[in-house]
Write a structure and sequence with these properties.
Elements: E1 9-14, H1 18-27, E2 33-39, H2 43-53, E3 56-58, H3 61-65, E4 70-73, H4 80-89, E5 93-97, H5 104-116, E6 121-124, H6 131-141, E7 148-156, H7 171-174, H8 178-193, E8 199-207, E9 236-243, E10 248-254, E11 264-269, E12 272-277, E13 282-289, E14 295-301, H9 308-322, H10 330-349, E15 353-354
Parallel strand pairs: 1-2, 1-4, 2-3, 4-5, 5-6, 7-10
Antiparallel strand pairs: 7-11, 8-9, 8-15, 9-10, 11-12, 12-13, 13-14
Helix pairs in contact: 4-5, 5-10, 8-10
């Protein structure tokens, strides 16, 4: 690894849209790193980014790679492989925004490139870095919950399609809709709480019930609405995941649904259980005992709120400095991608499918 004169890791952003700008803003607060460059094929995006952050911007990835130690790739999903593989081949470390790719085949090629490279690749599942998740994971490792057998994973928006007609709602570019966009977070956290057991079977259904209609009632939307003509993906998914050790995951994901929002995860173990609200950061632990008398014990865990993307960036910089990735590995991201692919396949054939099919 090389660095700037202050010993800080030199980082470039690949993809200078909203997500890239978001990363750049937080990167300015990571003392161990310095933002030195950006890359985008759009000249207006390059100009805007250069003016906002005072760094060089490039259209050619070779020019960028020669100026940095590491990159954060925030392009639309379809282009993850192109830039991540090129960076890894050039010996440049990579923080790759979720999901790993727009298709399983593309994700597998990224994994192969990461395995063959001396550079490292970390995947951007930022929700793992929230303090309630950190506390819950600590207690899971310590055995407080006993054997964890089931996780309910929910990520549901009453209305939250990220702009019909944007790349998010194009199957060709995104690879799917709500499942691959926000469901990827729910699947990752559920598997993370279970210590990534081997997944053997998945049964899933996907639906397009809101984005496909010309009349779509919403109060707020992530981006401009260009109508149903720019929407060819699912807006919700329901799935059941079965693992080799008997662990199970019930998944509910939606960009739009006629119900209240839900970012709730419910963990069931043989010694204790927990409810985590990812949106509000509330964490409640449920236990029962016989000491003195049969009783229930319900405890609320209070933590300090943190910016998860900033924490993720710090973990990435630490990985670059140490030369190894211990969190958010490509192998884990590939497992998540395989589950997503299996849900889509199950929905297409109308039955459960095995991951080794």
């Amino acid at each position: 690894m090389t660095s700037d004169g202050d010993g800080r890791v030199r980082i470039g952003i690949v993809g200078l849209g909203n997500i890239g700008t978001y990363h750049a803003e937080f990167l300015e607060e990571v003392q161990e790193a310095t933002l030195v460059a950006g890359l985008d094929i759009d000249s207006e995006a390059r100009t805007s980014f250069a003016e906002a952050f005072g760094v060089e911007t490039y259209a050619d990835r070779g020019d960028l790679f020669s100026a940095v130690d590491a990159v954060i790739v925030t392009t639309p999903n379809r282009f993850h492989e192109e830039y991540a593989v090129a960076a890894l081949d050039a010996g440049v470390d990579v923080l790759l925004e979720k999901p790993l790719a727009h298709t399983l085949e593309s994700a597998e090629r990224i994994a192969e490139a990461a395995d063959a490279s001396d550079a490292l690749c970390m995947v951007g599942f930022n929700n793992r870095f929230s303090n309630p998740v950190e506390v819950l994971k600590h207690d899971l490792r310590a055995g407080r919950f006993g054997d964890v057998t089931h996780v309910e994973a929910n990520y549901v928006r009453r209305r939250g399609i990220p702009g019909r007609g944007s790349w998010f709602t194009s199957k060709e570019v995104a690879g799917g809709g709500a499942l691959i966009d926000i469901g990827v977070h729910a699947i990752d956290l559920a598997l993370y709480f279970l210590d990534f057991p081997d997944v053997v079977e998945v049964s899933g259904t996907t639906r397009a019930e809101f984005g496909v209609h010309d009349e779509y009632a919403y109060l707020r939307q992530w981006g401009a609405d260009h109508g149903s003509g720019g929407f060819d993906v699912e807006d919700s998914a329901t799935a059941f995941v079965r693992c080799a050790g008997g662990e199970t995951i019930a998944l509910e994901v939606a960009w739009a649904a006629n119900r209240d929002d839900s970012d709730e995860f419910v963990i069931r173990g043989t010694e204790a259980g927990a409810r985590l609200d990812r949106g509000s950061h509330d964490l409640t632990v449920y236990e029962a005992g016989i000491g003195g008398a049969n009783h229930f014990s319900t405890s609320d865990v209070e933590t300090q709120e943190v910016v998860t993307h900033r924490q993720e960036q710090r973990a990435f910089v630490e990985a670059v400095e140490q030369g190894r990735v211990e969190r958010n590995t490509v192998e884990q991201a590939l497992t998540v991608q395989r589950v997503i692919d299996a849900i889509y396949r199950s929905a297409a054939v109308g039955r459960a499918v095995r991951l080794d099919d």
